[in-house]
Structures are given as C-alpha cells and as structure tokens.
Design brief:
The protein is an alpha/beta fold. Helices cover 26% and strands 35% of the residues. The model has no long low-confidence stretch (mean pLDDT 92). The protein binds glutamine. InterPro entries: Class_I_gatase-like, PdxT/SNO.
Amino acid sequence: MSAATLIVGVLALQGAFIEHIHMLNKIPEVKEAIPVRTEEQLNSIDCLIIPGGESTAMALIAERCNMLEPLRAFVQKKPTWGTCAGMIMLAKEATGAKKGGQQLFNGLDVVVNRNQFGTQKESFQTMLHLPEILGEEPFPAVFIRAPVISQIKSDDVKIVGRLEHKHGQTEAETAVAVIQNHLFATAFHPELTSDNRLHQFFVGFALKYKN
Ligand code: GLN
C-alpha cells in the first residue's frame, strides 16, 4: 500500500486557504490537497479544512454558491478542521455575529464568541500547550481577531487547548482548541507558522475515519 492515501480539501471560498495547501503538501500521507469551491470537489475529498478569514464573508459566499447545505451535510459525517473563522463556521452557534445572525455549518455543539480579543491590533502570538494532541512541546499559536469557545453544549466535546489570559483583575481560561468526534477546531492560525505538527495531527485524525 502506498503511504499517500488521503485527499484533503481546503475550503477556498474566502480566506487563508493557500497556506493550508502548502502545509499539507509536505505531509507524506497526503495524496492530494485541493482547494474546494464546488459540491463536486466536496464529494471527492476524504476530509476538509475550513480556513481563517472572515466568517461573515465566508457564509455569504457559501450561500451564494449553493454550498451551504452541501457543507452542512459534509461536516455531519466527514473529518473537518476549522481554524479561526473556520472554527466559527463549524460551530452551531456564534455570538458577536452580524445583525440578524449569520449562517453557520452547524457541526460543533459549542457557542463561539467572535472577535473575543478585539481588533486586528490586539492580535498576538503565544506558545500554546496542546498536551493531548502534541505532547509536551508547545505550539506557536497565532491569534488574529480570534474567536473563543464560550460554551460547550455536549459531553462529546473535548477541550484540548486552553489559553490563560488576564480579564480585568481575574485570570480566566478559555477554550481555543476542541475535538468532537470527527470534528476538530482551533481558534488560531496554524498555517501561518512553519510548524506543521497540527496539520500532521489532523491527517492522522482523518485517516482513522477513512474506511
Ligand atoms: N474575526 C473573524 C471572523 O469573525 C475571524 C478572524 C480570523 O479568521 N483570523 O470571521
């Protein structure tokens, strides 16, 4: 059996999709990494990454391209990783959304709060511990107008990354990486570093659901 077996799609309606494709192309188990814009392409992949960008724009474009329902059906059954805006899209509920709400892909049983850390200026990088998935070595996590998970609505959702931050006088912990069955979400941008351990993790995770 050849080592390269997995066809990974990266949703390419909007946002930082090329960077994910570059990261995936370095992983031996990835047979092909393709940008996904149509239902046909969605049907040809084993798993999907929803990139960071702007979730309101991504939702509008998905609706306009008739991709909303196919994506909703896909995330019900196939391994999917949402990063930043992609994490918002993968959730069932978002707060801080535009007036009238916004369309989501309805996968994760969580509430995500958009723009938790304020504006572009308040973007930051930190060494994040993800012991359950990456072991002891921390990951250089880039947070850009990042969301956080503010509520968990199912026992199936497992928090695998927490960010400690000062909020007023108190220290709080917020969930920034979760797994629910075949779904994975991170609030930061792992494709903007040269560390591809999270992409490797996702490929291994998705392979478990193949066959
Ligand atoms: N704040 C953006 C949104 O609401 C997400 C930012 C990002 O993906 N870097 O979509």
